[in-house]
Known about the structure:
Layout lengths: L10 E6 L5 H10 L1 H5 L3 E4 L10 H11 L2 E6 L1 H5 L1 H16 L4 E6 L29 H17 L2
Parallel strand pairs: 1-2, 1-3, 3-4
Helix pairs in contact: 3-5
Amino acid sequence: MSSSPEGREPVRIFVSYAHEDDALRDELMTHLSLLVRQGLIAPWQDRSIRPGDDWESAIDENLEAADIILLLVSADFMASDYIDSKELRRALERHDAGEARVIPVILRPVDWESSPFGRLQAVPTDAKPVTTWPDRDEAWADVVKSLRSSVANL
Length: 154
């Protein structure tokens, strides 16, 4: 990992998402590329697992190491038993203990406000789902600016 211009190690980001949202996750990763290039963040998602790796251990290790945990929220995310029982539960434990910051990124319209993470400030602005913005690039830019701010405040 290269360090940022300020000499800090990149903020480790764990991306929790449902595989049905692969295309939206890819869009987010594209929009995060400047933060990566600037050495500000080091995102990780389960598509980074190499063949032959123990996938559950890799997920656990990266979830434990993350400074920021992004929840890519959609109906598929909410319906995932694995996300609910493993990733989400541990993410919120780490958030509540002050060990990591959990940030919900609302991808598609879904009833998420009464979920265990419904108390957290979500992005984009006003928790308006990314897919409902007239210009999706504007939605992603809003998400990235919010994330840049969170990284600067760590």
